[in-house]
Amino acid sequence: MTIATDPIAPPPRLTAQLHLDATLTRVWLLLQRFVARYGYRMFGSGESFEEAFSGFAQAMAQIQQLGQPIPVEPWHQGNWPSPASLRDQLDRYERALRRQLTAASAAPTPPHLPLEELRARFSLTEQELRIVIAVAAPQLSIDIATAYEFVMATPALDGPTCGFIAELVTDTPAEARRLLYSLDASSPLVRQGLVEVTPQGNDRLHSAHIAAPRSVLRFMCGALGPLPDPLAPFGQLHAPDEAPARESLVLADGVSAQLSGALRQASHARARLVLSGPRGLGKRSALQAWLAELGAGLLVIDLDTLLTERAAPLPLLRQLTIEASLRGHALLLRSDEAVQSAPRSQVAALRLVLDAFRGLVAASTTHPDARTLTPLLGAAPVVEFPPLDASGRRALWRLALSPHLDPEEVPPLSDQLARQVRATPGAMVQGVTQASGQRTWRRPQKRAASIAAAARAVHAHALGELAEPLRTSLRWEDAVLDPKTLARLEELVVHATHQGQVLDTWEMGRQLPYGRGLSCLFYGPPGTGKTMTAALIAQRLGLPIYRVELSKIVSKYIGETEKNLARLFDQAALAGGILLFDEADSLFAKRTQVKGANDRYANLKVNYLLQRMEAYDGVTVLTTNLDKDLDEALRRRLRFRLHFPKPDADLRAALWRRMLPARALGDDPIDVQTLAAKFEFAGGHIKNAVLRAAFLAAHAGRPLDTDLLNEAAVREARELGMLVRD
User: Fold this and answer.
1) What is the mean pLDDT of the chain?
2) 199: left (phi > 0), else alpha (psi -120 to 50), else beta?
3) Is the pLDDT of residue 657 over 50?
4) Which CATH class is domain 476-643?
5) Is pTM beyond 0.90 here?
6) Which of 138, 324, 441, 697 could potentially form a cystine with 145 if both were Cys, beta carbons 3.0 to 4.6 Å apart?
7) Going by CATH, does the domain composed of 235-384 fall within 3.40.630.30?
8) Closest to 320 in 3D by CA, of 209, 426, 442, 237
9) Side-chain half-sphere exposure of 43, counting CA atoms within 13 A
């Protein structure tokens, strides 16, 4: 009995499943040709043709499209079609299938054909597509898997071998050899992740197993679905229909034009782009909106998490790029620090994976120097996302407030919030939503404070890992300071209050060489009220203040201090508070002459801190007892340098009076002039002496008087190493 030599016709009308079935039928035709050409390899000693071919015949007979059983006569007796006749049969079948594809594409509503989409997405040649289908066939059909095992004369648990696939899909042995050696690690099919090659113990490519990744198989079957569970912690899919409309985005001036120009330049394959700026300014949303207009989605990859939490990130990154390619998505890599600290060899390997990705690769970073991503992406164009000015924040607040208020109530409240609060769009919406559910919402005069507190609380938790909120029960009127210092503080408050009007509305911000932030230095002896004054300024401005915990910032490990500083400034920008660096000389010490690696690293740390201070669009207060030890570059970047001198006798008398608790005093007046003249204390030490005297009075069961205050002050002075008379 002979096998039919007439071509097996493809289905008259193509659907995704019928097209897949038709391509698998072609694999069966290839198998027939393989048996005709290499059948002599399949005979064992004393084995009959029927015994040798029984498994293959049974598998082939199950395919209804073939319609004929397999002959039992030996292949060399002429009953089996020759390789040439089978080649003709393949050609006729492929021409008929191409005609069906042409007709399908010309239909008013063309069918969705995943295999053709795969060809287009990866720019595959006809031969490359045949290889992918031949590799995937045993994973899509158990019958083909059985036939593969028979003709290879070995179990194919890990897939067919590269040598078998090369001989299966080519017409001549010479073509098979050329194809075989194109399936190594540098092969486009391998680098793009469409096939996976697993070498065996002998390290010969001919015997290496080759298989299709599961994502490719799902795509072929039209069942791509969400990201697989192993990839979900590191990637997030954003379909085009999830993107915000471009007109709904509020971006800083010039960003839209920069992004449009960069994407026009990046319209070619393997384009690269860097989005630089603090978190929460719409980098991802903007890229998503622009891509959606091109019909493309976005796969966001948390590269920092991938590099820090996985010992072998390369396979995961390769799988993520495959998922993006199959969907026609661009990549957005979020990376702030991990690329800088990763070994160079690892970054080079990551770049090889990304180089194989044919679409747009963008990177989002909060690092002030976007060039840190050059080892990963090369010399990619950079789009800067600067913080929003007051007008931008006003527009965002109007969008957040409009669903909750009457139209006439929105403008004044949005103006007030734009001056007081710097938060991400999400925090703005969350703050308004939370505040609108409180009872204070019905009181218009309380709305701004409620919204501001709720919006800042969204970011305060993350900031609390590196800094602690600083609160005071004192009021501005309680401050007892040198008149010159007090006048400068009033000027500082004026600058902070009207910064939006002067820098944004009047556009004076363009003339500031060192950024828009308000950086202040409070220097003077211990106990002169530097920290207390910083808290009072925050209270007067209606802003939270966070005291930086240097023990959580400074690290002995190279690069860790910079990472912590980056997190600190990023979260402070979102929380919209004042940053207080107590004892700033420990961080901002003068840079030294480079005599070794430690000196070089210490200087880099100071440089990075100065960069972040320049970029921080908020108020930063530094306090120090040792002004002369601060780096000179820091001094140039300070808008205010306020001296807190030791108080003179009149100020000390005022401090004693201010700190005396009225309920603890008796009928006798306190001689504050004598105390002020005798003890040359700063305000902090006077507070300690009064507190110590209060405990002495409570223990003695008598009112607080001058004698007890004098005794407590003597003890305080001796602890400070001061010489005083009893």
Assistant:
1) 83
2) beta
3) yes
4) alpha beta
5) no
6) 138
7) no
8) 237
9) 12
